[in-house]
Amino acid sequence: MTTAQSPDELARNGLPVEAEPALVPRQTAPDNAEFPIQQWWSWITPTRLFYVRSHFAVPALDPASWRLVVDGEVERPLALSLADLQALPRQRRVATLECAGNRRTEFEPRPPGVPWQDGAVSSAEWEGVALADVLSLARPRAAAQELLLEGADQGMVAGGEPPIRFARSLSRERALHPDTLLADRMNGDPLPADHGAPLRAVVPGRYGMDSVKWLVRLRLLDRAFDGHFQVNDYRLFPPAGSTAPPRPIGPVRVNSLITWPAGGAELRAGREIRLVGYAWSGSGAIRDVEVSVDGGATWKAAALVGPEAPHAWRLWELGWKPEAPGAHRLAVRAVDSTGATQPEQADWNAKGYANNGVRRLEVQVR
Ligand SMILES: Nc1nc2c(c(=O)[nH]1)N[C@H]1C(S)=C(S)[C@@H](COP(=O)(O)O)O[C@H]1N2
Ligand SMILES: [Mo]
Question: How far is the CA of 56 from the centre of ligand 1 (A)?
Fold first, then answer.
């Protein structure tokens, strides 16, 4: 069983791959880039290939003078240094992060926003401390309903002045969940600047925006946070002209992708290859992955391979020997342990979030 494949190993699979996979830029200043999902298949995404989604320029933070302020509805306001945090019990979790805008470009018509294809998703081993342990030092009051997480990064947003910081709130329950971390290490190394150094939140099961990077403040609130990134962004907005209220995005939806072959690949008739890919869900384990090589007429169960963890994606694979020359339409869909599966097409929404429609692509057999 192979769970990580270098370009050489992939080429032996009969599929053309780049020699040096690299992040795929989708926007510059600030830099936003995708994991090259057609070029790499492993449970843990190498840090240099982990997608980057930043609303503003990366803030320069000096780890020596950096402090994490904990205030608001607490008995004991705090300003913690990195050393203070590192003295708490250490935790490690493998968790997948997916940007809510992943697969936005597959919506028709295409909503505005970073033009993500399907690589705004990656997995890493995060190391740090439980957010609950940090909060218990500050002793939240009974009135505390939400936890506001503030990043040090700031900039202007449409329709607003002065510059604002990136900030998101979590329910009290989610903030105290034992799997919600404040991470200072990623894949065994100190957290890199792009991914939130010196400290970021990692909120498994939720879309990426809750995993606030460059954390500088945790503020307990006695009411619902109504800042820009909570109410003007990151909700499912109806089409223009509709009076329907925006809906919450909710947990990461069950989703799956085909790594190989890529759309447009040329395969040889009579030669067996392995179809491989990823499947994940924010609500439970992946129970099944089904693959079709005939446009969705028939489906076969793929094998789930490699390691598993409660908040991490699963690798899948399926052998296939294409016989008939011509175009073949491939499709993949996953089912999670709650029984949730992928819709033929996800509901269109004005900002293009949470697209988990059945993934389809076409390959040529010669
Ligand atoms: N401070 C801050 N935190 C942030 C963001 C940001 O712009 N600023 N982007 C969020 C979004 S939308 C996503 S998808 C994830 C991406 O994390 P990554 O860049 O490590 O992949 O970070 C989240 N945390
Ligand atoms: Mo995101």
Answer: 10
Q: Which atom of ligand 1 is nearest to the CA of 54?
A: 7
Q: Could you tell me if 77 and 176 lie in one domain?
A: yes
Domain count across the chain: 2
229 CA distance to ligand 1 centroid (A)? 11
Each residue's pLDDT tens digit, 193-239: 999 999 999 999 999 999 999 999 999 999 999 999 999 999 999 99
Any domain includes 208: yes
| CATH number for 260 | 2.60.40.650
Residue bearing the CA closest to ligand 1, atom 23: 209
- pTM attached to this predicted model: 0.95
Q: How many Cβ atoms from other residues are within 10 Å of residue 93's Cβ?
A: 21
Nearest alpha-carbon partner for 48 in 30, 29, 35, 61: 35
Ligand with minimal distance to 126 CA: 1
The Cα 58–Cα 201 span in angstroms is 16
